[in-house]
Design goal:
The complex is a heterodimer. By secondary structure, chain A is an alpha/beta fold. Chain A is built from 17 helices and six strands. Helices cover 67% and strands 7% of the residues of chain A. In chain A, helix 3 links the parallel strand 1 and strand 2. Chain B is built from ten helices and 14 strands. Classes of the chains: A alpha/beta, B alpha/beta.
Chain lengths: 413, 311
């Protein structure tokens, strides 16, 4: 292989990709979209909430008084709770307020009977009978009052202790003899990295595939192949696209590092991002190897077809090869020690996505990370040889879709 | 001296033999025309010569600077340049970047290249389009850019697959002038074409391919000489269908006014001329012992129906 010729191809790929509108837009738009979706979800949950008005009927006079007192001292956003001075059964009350409930003048009516103090069952009547957020708020208020009422012989400190939930402070035991306070930060970083990897592999793969299909369809590849060997051209394209994607990843990942270093945003103390240098370097190297692997595969698929539609139809096995490990990686957040997670972090192709997440959620020995990385490098080399064989023949075949038998013949050639 | 020797070249695609045991050689500094009907194997032959396709059999030997190179030798890339039949460029690249890219690919980009690009852009009336994107150019102008990209690396051999297709007469003429100019510079030009008249006027050597086989190859003048005996090129308004020439003419093909006539073995051209005069036929032109490449090609190539019937 002549590296000077490969360099010319890399230069062209970088220039075309880095200066393209698609690159600039996706690099800026992707995080912007991510932030927007987060904000929008927050807005939907919190800000866009319409004010709620709840009427409460309490049978027990003592409970009614203590509840009234608590509501006097507390304020709830977008929620007005009025306590009725008298009590009657729902059968009598609801017909009176039916129109108000249906016209949204009143959001709901809560009935706390005498029995509620024993079985903690309360009845709620509303047009919107499944308002989980409201139930959580009311549950907190009522539970406090129920506990105060039933255990009134205890002092305030004891009551507060009863109310208190158990707080798990987890510590991660590491192979490097350090015991660090664990936190949700690792999980968040793991998930973000996994998503970036998933998104990047699919995007870069699709980009190289469509560019190869275009080169094949408009025959520019003929001129290029009269100047360079197919393997040189493919190498240049793979390196060019991998570098483009690495640059994009560096742009995306830098805010995570800034946040981790606490340079911006006051993140809660119990969320500590603990990506260390080893993990960071491993992640970038693994990402580069993963890109080379998948970009090579996408390039091979692109060379088999001479129009984008056929290429899209032919690429689904590759899409699955990226999606399945991504879902396994996501499942690690709820089941970090799953066997599937362990096994797939050593299987070619899946280990590229699963291992970086696994090592963020559980402590993985260095030797396992090493084995996984060696497997990934060997896979990349194997895929490169395979892709070069398919590319060399596929790129010059036009007019018919290759069969599986054709593909085998190309590989044997 | 020959710059290329092609020996026993064969290429099959499945059951179809696209190129069948082809032998020919290309003299140095010549214009070499490859002529054949659609699907005859012209492009496949050129692609094998450029190492884009690997032949199933045979070899192609290049002679550069008194050294022999096989077509698979990477060294030959810098001596060759190719303009494919179906034109394609990177649509979003600028004119300038496109030409520079191809020069760099051939590793021929140097301090002189910029001047050379300017020279060719001016020649093709494209100097003000330097920064235009390829997609913003007309199809004809894109072809011109592709041609400049082909010759910018100053190759020893130019391979041009249908270089005139899609061009208007003025640009065909411009292209022809530049090809002749390249020949003057000592380049060898190998091109395929359907324009046999053009090939006859422009080429030194010709190769006729049919069904992947070499049916004729040689110097254009020598080929014509060999086929021209007892052949007349007659220019007249008369329609021969109304006249009886069965005693004089073996075969003839008509292009309206211009007719190519093969006389019977025992008939001399002057006897035929006398017969025309005796029949009061107005003669605009009469050339004895001449034949066009077109007629030679048509006489050699069986029509598709004949081929299908195994004739």
């Amino acid at each position: 292989m002549d590296f000077n010729r490969i360099l010319v191809i890399i230069k062209r790929e970088l220039k075309e990709k880095l200066l393209s509108k698609a690159f600039i837009i996706s690099t800026i738009a992707f995080p912007a979209l991510f932030i927007f979706i987060g904000w929008f979800q927050f807005y939907l949950n919190e800000k866009s909430e319409t004010p709620k008005k709840i009427l409460v009927f309490v049978e027990n006079n003592q409970l009614r008084d203590s509840l009234t007192n608590q509501l006097k001292t507390s304020k709830y956003e977008n929620l007005t709770i009025n306590i009725s001075n008298n009590y009657d059964t729902p059968e009598k009350i609801i017909p009176i307020y039916k129109n108000s409930l249906l016209n949204d003048n009143l959001t709901g009516i809560l009935f706390i009977s005498q029995n509620s103090l024993n079985d903690k069952n309360v009845n709620y009547y509303s047009k919107y009978s499944n308002d989980e957020k409201l139930f959580r708020t009311l549950e907190n208020i009522l539970n406090t009052q129920f506990i105060f009422h039933n255990f009134s012989h205890l002092n305030k400190n004891d009551l507060n202790f009863i109310k208190k939930k158990i707080n798990f402070k987890s510590f991660k035991v590491s192979y490097d003899d350090t015991t660090a306070k664990d936190n949700t930060g690792n999980l968040i970083v793991g998930m973000i990295l996994s998503f970036l990897l998933y998104f990047s592999l699919l995007m870069t793969g699709s980009m190289i595939m469509s560019s190869i299909v275009e080169e094949k369809a408009n025959r520019i590849v003929e001129i290029i192949l009269s100047s360079v060997k197919p393997i040189e051209f493919l190498t240049g394209k793979i390196i060019g696209n991998t570098l483009t994607s690495l640059i994009q990843m560096a742009i995306w990942i830098s805010p995570i590092i800034i946040v981790q270093q606490g340079l911006i945003l006051n993140i809660p103390k119990d969320i500590i991002f603990s990506i260390d240098v080893f993990k960071f370097v491993y992640f970038l190297l693994n990402f580069a190897v993963g890109l080379i692997t998948f970009v090579g595969l996408f390039a091979a698929v692109g060379s088999m077809y001479d129009n984008p539609q056929d290429a899209q139809n032919g690429v689904w096995p590759l899409t699955l090869l990226i999606m399945i490990p991504f879902f396994i990686a996501i499942s690690l957040s709820t089941n970090p020690t799953s066997e599937i997670g362990f096994i797939t972090s050593f299987i070619p192709f899946t280990s590229i996505i699963v291992m970086p997440v696994r090592m963020n959620v559980v402590e993985v020995p260095y030797y396992q990370v090493g084995i996984s990385f060696v497997i990934n490098v060997l896979t990349a080399i194997f895929v490169f040889v395979l892709s070069a064989k398919i590319y060399k023949i596929g790129i010059m075949i036009t007019g018919k879709k290759p069969s599986f038998k054709d593909l085998l013949n190309w590989l044997k050639a | 001296m020959n710059i290329i020797e092609v020996k026993s070249l064969t290429k099959k695609f499945g059951n179809i033999t696209a190129v069948d045991n082809l032998f020919f050689s290309v003299p140095e500094k010549s214009i070499f025309a490859v002529i054949g009907r659609n699907g005859a194997g012209k492009t496949t032959t050129l692609r094998m010569m450029l190492n884009i396709y690997q032949p199933d059999q045979g070899e192609i030997i290049y002679h550069f600077n008194e050294k022999n190179y096989n077509s698979t030798n990477q060294e030959i890339y810098k001596y060759l340049s190719y303009l494919p039949e179906e034109r394609g460029l990177y649509k979003k690249m600028t004119v300038w970047d496109t030409i520079v890219f191809f020069a760099e690919l051939k590793q021929s980009y140097n301090s002189q290249t910029k001047k050379l690009i300017d020279h060719y852009l001016e020649k093709f009336n494209l100097k003000d389009r330097k920064t235009s994107k390829i997609q913003d150019l007309s199809k004809g102008n894109q072809q011109k850019i592709q041609f400049i990209a082909t010759i910018i690396s100053n190759p020893q051999i130019l391979f041009l697959d249908e270089p005139f297709s899609g061009l208007d007469p003025i640009n065909i003429n411009l292209m022809k002038d530049i090809i002749l100019e390249e020949k003057q510079k000592g380049k060898t030009i190998i091109y395929s074409t359907h324009l046999i008249d053009f090939a006859e006027k422009m080429s030194d050597e010709v190769l006729f391919i049919d069904n992947g086989k070499n049916i004729l190859c040689g110097n254009v003048n020598e080929v014509k000489q060999n086929f021209a005996k007892s052949n007349i090129i007659l220019n007249c308004d008369e329609n021969f269908n109304n006249l009886d020439f069965s005693n004089f003419i073996d075969t003839y093909s008509s292009f309206g006014k211009s007719k190519s006539i093969k006389l019977k073995d025992n008939i001399k051209p002057q006897d035929f001329l006398k017969h025309l005069i005796d029949n009061n036929i107005t003669i605009n032109g009469f050339t004895a012992n001449d034949i066009s490449l077109q007629d030679i090609f048509l006489s050699l190539v069986k029509n598709p129906a004949e081929v299908e019937n195994g004739l």
